[in-house]
Specification:
- The protein starts with a strand and ends with a helix.
- The chain has a single domain, classed as ATPase, nucleotide binding domain (Nucleotidyltransferase, domain 5, 2-Layer Sandwich).
- By secondary structure, it is an alpha+beta fold.
- The strands form four sheets. The chain has an eight-stranded mixed β-sheet, with helices on both faces. A two-stranded antiparallel sheet has the order 1-2.
- The protein has ten helices and 14 strands.
- The radius of gyration is 22 Å and the shape is globular.
């Protein structure tokens, strides 16, 4: 409902408010991100045993805090997040929109800065799908509960499958897609499966498929940013996986920095933003405060294979999108 074309003067937009049919008075007043709103209420300090001078600071959405917690806080420093969904994001100093690929810049959690925003609908959810809906589905053929270390076991399996998953492609569009194509009809699944393939191939294909789609998105994010990223910081649950980090580096053809405690990126970012608001940290030191676990360099031996697979991946979408539109009206 805001006009955020001027990053230093964000206001509600009268015409957008009219479209909602809701009076301005029913919307909260706008304050900059990370504003100190006041002290915590006394009844809460008493209940929680906190000091009376604890400050309340305006918060941010998950993508914004993750961008800070990723350590990629300078303009044109990118990060890749794999959780249930996924995104490729970076800070930029300008306002811009790409309506053809569902990408745009929005006010970031940092003063005077924008954030390239986008979202892939299904990423880590794809691994959960094969775990919960295929391998360990609860029916008459059920094989019991999934092992608690399922993802670690999956990593070990994927490590022994060659790049390219023995010809199997995975299309990660299990719930439609938002970016780089805004397509509510498209659906996912395994492509080019033969009698010679097995679930080992399928597990690797899932990781490759999610990263292929992210490479597709990366193309347009870098196009909007106006430059190629030197490296990508990798966060979220997917970044706990060494093999997924390597697969992403190979498919992106970029060094991938697997960040330490990648699952903590959102909460870490919120804490850093609070420290910035309280003048207990300087923005120039944020990147240094977020540690890298390991840097994965692209394997040049997989370059030609993944370039060819990427072109076929996009071709599969283009050739089938009209069929998906008919199947999922």
């Amino acid at each position: 409902m805001t006009d955020n074309r001027d990053i230093n003067n964000i206001t509600y937009h009268d015409d957008l408010l009219k479209l909602t049919g809701i009076e301005r008075e029913k919307f909260p007043d706008l304050v900059p991100a990370n504003s100190i709103l006041g002290n915590i209420r006394k009844e809460i300090t008493d209940e929680l045993g906190l000091n009376a001078d604890v400050k309340v600071i305006s918060g941010t959405p998950d993508v914004h805090s993750a961008a800070i917690g990723s350590g990629a806080v300078k303009d044109f420093e990118g990060h890749f997040y794999v959780g249930t969904s996924s995104w490729v994001v970076c800070h930029v100093p300008f306002k811009k929109t790409d309506i053809f690929h569902n990408i745009g810049t929005i006010p970031s959690a940092l003063p005077g800065r924008y954030l390239i925003a986008n979202d892939q609908e299904s990423a880590g959810a794809c691994l959960n799908f094969i775990k919960n809906n295929l391998l360990y589905y609860k029916d008459e053929l059920g094989t019991g509960a999934a092992p608690k270390d399922f993802y670690k076991i999956a990593d070990r399996i994927v490590e022994r499958v060659p790049a390219g998953s023995n010809g199997v492609y995975f299309l990660p569009w299990l719930y439609g897609e938002r970016a780089p194509v805004d397509d509510h009809h498209v659906r996912g699944g395994f492509y080019n499966v033969s009698l010679n393939n097995n679930r080992d191939d399928m597990l690797r294909a899932i990781m490759e498929g999610v990263s292929m789609n992210a490479r597709w998105l990366l193309k347009y994010v870098e196009q909007m940013a106006g430059r190629k990223f030197e490296a990508i910081n990798f966060i979220g649950g997917g970044a706990n996986s060494a093999i997924w980090s390597q697969i992403t580096a190979d498919i992106f053809n970029r060094p991938v920095r697997q960040m330490k405690q990648p699952l903590m990126s959102n909460s870490r970012g919120a804490a850093i933003l609070a420290l910035l608001a309280l003048n207990m940290m300087n923005i120039d030191t944020v990147g240094k405060s977020v540690e890298v676990n390991k840097v994965y360099e692209p394997n040049t031996g997989n370059r030609a294979l993944y370039d060819e697979m990427f072109n076929r991946f996009i071709d599969i979408y283009n050739r089938n999108k009209s069929i998906f539109a008919k199947l999922n009206k």
